[in-house]
Design a protein that fits this description.
single chain; about 250 residues; alpha/beta; Rossmann fold; four-stranded parallel β-sheet; two-stranded parallel sheet
């Protein structure tokens, strides 16, 4: 990513499309990095479109309800606040410059190199499934094709929820991973016990529950998911590749 400074020329992006993937800093409630990036773009060489990857964390805790793009953003964690701040920065920049923007709110990303294998091997506990929040995910290969579809077909100013539309509890996710990779099932604890042994970061995930509706993504972006659910994503061919460290 090019960050403009006083001793650098402005970033020329004429006739290009920006796919902004960089995460915010790990601390604070704002995203200064995206503001630096936007400020570095040459005003006389603006891109044709900007597609921003955000996260479903901006919706906050929804008590396990199904969430569409019409649901109001209500982040309750710093990571959610940082993402919403980035969204708002790009929206304001888009309005000021006239550059069309498309916003993708992405669920958890999984695939090769993005699975909790080491956590399971270490015996890290999970919540009892009855206490576990719903989580949402998208295979990294499907996310790649969604990004291309958003560049080509995303409607100006629109928000799209990105997931496979098949949420499960976080505990079920870990159990399924353990089963596929022939690992011991993680020990289960209560939320009270979890608060004593888990990091603040992990606890913040456990205190938010939502189920993401992906209908708009499928209909408007015309995406046909290669991995329509976790079982498909961890099917025989994929899991073999993952075991081999692809």
């Amino acid at each position: 990513m090019w960050i403009g400074k006083k001793n650098r020329p402005a970033l020329p992006l004429k006739k290009s499309v920006v796919l902004y993937l960089a995460p915010p800093p790990n601390e604070g409630d704002t995203d200064p990095l995206i503001r630096q990036f936007l400020a570095a773009i040459a005003s006389n060489a603006l891109p044709e479109k900007i597609v921003l990857l955000s996260t479903t964390a901006v919706y906050g805790n929804c008590q396990g309800d199904w969430i569409t793009e019409a649901h109001k953003a209500n982040p309750q964690t710093s990571r959610g606040l940082r993402r919403l701040d980035a969204e708002q920065a790009v929206q304001k920049w888009s309005e000021r410059t006239g550059v069309p923007m498309v916003l993708l709110r992405v669920g958890g990303i999984y695939g090769a190199g993005r699975l909790p294998i080491e956590s399971i091997k270490k015996g890290t506990p999970i919540l009892h499934e009855a206490d576990s929040p719903f989580t949402n995910r998208i295979h990294q290969d499907d996310l790649a094709q969604v990004c291309i579809a958003a560049i080509e077909r995303g409607r100006v100013g629109e928000v799209y929820n990105i997931s496979d539309g098949q949420p499960s509890t976080m505990s079920r996710y870990f159990k399924d991973i353990a089963q596929v990779f022939d690992l011991p099932q993680p020990p289960e604890v209560s939320l009270e016990e979890a608060e004593k042994v888990m990091s603040a970061g992990m606890l913040s995930y456990l205190k938010e529950s939502r189920r993401i509706d992906n209908g708009k993504m499928l209909e408007e972006l015309g995406v046909v998911l290669r991995y329509a659910d976790l079982a498909a994503g961890l099917g025989e061919n994929e899991s073999t590749a993952l075991k081999n460290g692809r």
